[in-house]
């Protein structure tokens, strides 16, 4: 069951939308949002989450670099890569990471979020 979700994405508007929609679907979720991937990495040193939603392309570092840093710190969790467009290269790249369980297209749809949370969307 997913109770704690971390978003690492440089898009603050998406953070607001995702928070509003997710809290409507499951009000007891613990949500953590980071625009700066370095702050997120630091957070993961002392905290855990059930799911990481990670943007593929950010100004500070690519999502793949973030995953490499998580792995080097011995941190493992389920990751959904967040993207604006499905690039075949990204799909191929995801095969190198056991943690990556799929891709999500921006903006996140309520149906997809409900499915991830294992709840019926009404």
UniProtKB/TrEMBL annotation:
GO biological process: phosphorelay signal transduction system
Record domain Response regulatory: where: 4-121
Keyword field: Phosphoprotein
Pfam family, one: Response_reg
Alphabetical list of SUPFAM superfamilies matching this protein: CheY-like
Signal peptide: none
Annotated positions of the 4-aspartylphosphate modification: 55
Protein name: Two-component response regulator
Species for this entry: Indibacter alkaliphilus (strain CCUG 57479 / KCTC 22604 / LW1)
């Amino acid at each position: 069951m997913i109770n704690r979700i971390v978003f690492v994405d440089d898009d603050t508007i998406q953070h607001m939308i995702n928070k509003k929609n997710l809290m409507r679907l499951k009000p007891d979720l613990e949500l953590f949002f980071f625009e700066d991937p370095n702050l997120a990495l630091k957070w993961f040193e002392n905290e855990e989450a059930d799911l990481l939603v990670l943007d593929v392309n950010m100004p500070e570092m690519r999502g793949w670099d973030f995953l490499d840093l998580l792995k080097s710190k011995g941190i493992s969790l389920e990751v959904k890569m967040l993207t604006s467009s499905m690039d075949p290269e990204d799909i191929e790249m995801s095969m190198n990471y056991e943690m990556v369980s799929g891709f999500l297209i921006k903006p996140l749809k309520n149906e997809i979020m409900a499915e991830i949370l294992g709840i019926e969307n009404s």
